[in-house]
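ugh ok fine here u go
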Amino acid sequence: MQINTRLKRGLRCSSECATRDHLTFGECMRAKSLQLKPNLSNTRAVKRHDNELEAYRSARRQGIQPAGTTMKQVESAVRISDATGVAYQADKPMFDAKVS
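structure:
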């Protein structure tokens, strides 16, 4: 009894294969040129950074000039502005006391 070891083209292709002419499933996948890269746009660090920049933009739209773009610096500048009624300017501080 002889076992047929010849592979037929298309028999092992994926269901989405347009040509159905590959000898192996791996060959079929390589022909699709799949780009398997992790989606780095949803990482926690990127989201945190984007939120900090949005808070900074919001403060700038209100006329506030924080000392930096970190959330701590932006929130501190907004608190000082709210407490004094004047837009905080980091390069021209009104006083050295911090508002908590």
